[in-house]
Amino acid sequence: MSPQPTILFVLDTPKDETALRGAFESFYSLQFCHDPDQTLDFIARSKPAVVVLSFQTDLISPLAVAHVLRGDPVSPYIGLIYISQQDGNEWLDRAIMAGVDVCLPEGRTLLQTKTALESVLRLRQAKEEVAAINAKFHTAYQRFKSLSAVDEGNGLGNFHFLTNQLRLEFKRAQRYQKNLVLLLVRVDSLSEIQNLDPAQDKLLNAVAQTICRSVRFEIDTAGRARGAEFIVILPETDIDGAISVAERLREKVATLYVNEGMEQLATSVGLAHFCGTRSNFQTFEEFLDTATLAVQCAQHHGGDQYWALDTSSEDLHEERIA
Known about the structure:
- The protein has about 325 residues and is an alpha/beta fold.
- The chain folds into two domains: about 5-145, Rossmann fold (3-Layer(aba) Sandwich); about 160-320, Reverse transcriptase/Diguanylate cyclase domain (Alpha-Beta Plaits), CATH 3.30.70.
- Helix content is about 45%, strand content about 20%.
- The chain contains nine helices and eleven strands.
- Strands 7-8-6-9-10-11 form a six-stranded mixed β-sheet, with helices on both faces.
- Strand 9 (about 265-275), helix 9 and strand 10 form a beta-alpha-beta unit.
- The protein is elongated.
- The chain starts with 5 loop residues before the first strand and ends with a strand.
């Protein structure tokens, strides 16, 4: 059996308490506060489902209480019933603007009060259900955002995340005339395989982790882009520094797997270098395409090497180590 909801009555005087207890005590858990100045403290202690405000003092007004409660978006929703002690209807707009759920006249009947309580309790339940649904949607949305940017196999940034990061770094390098290097790393023996088996996929995730551990933490960005290809973004790195990184990556990846013929895991690396002072690339797409061309050149010339290009036009600067 679910517990009875707590109803807090905040009254000027205790004269109505006996009648209210007789009418509602069998339906609700009742609390009474006869010091309106202590209303907010009483609410914090009793945590009611509904508060019935029937008072008027110089220090605090019922509408001020409503403003405070509605200004707290974190705490559970508390229903508010305002019993006006004023003549006329001019107070209705102010009460609604303050966040009161139901307004009753001072001469209300017990039946009207009970009907108002039931309505506000249903409203509160509906708001709780909506909040629960919104929380589920928020959780699902955050997971979707995470999955849209993260490779589930290794927990690192996927192609979508990596290319977005490259776009941002390219714009920054252009704006501040900084160096930027993009490495595309391909595992030669697996780069042509369309459907990787679980063992091959596991090996490639290990390659991704190795590459990420080999670059500068919180400065460089690395991850598995797709298939057997990996992206490494090196901000503020010149071409000599990038070549050192490329060779270090190839050496570390080589030790992850040795086949029956004692051959290590060979990789080809394509290196594109943006020089901020020369602006040798005009667009992010041009920069990415050049790195792709570089890794294709490395594989075309036998693989297990790197190629470095710093322009996308006919006058290509090439670096090659077998």
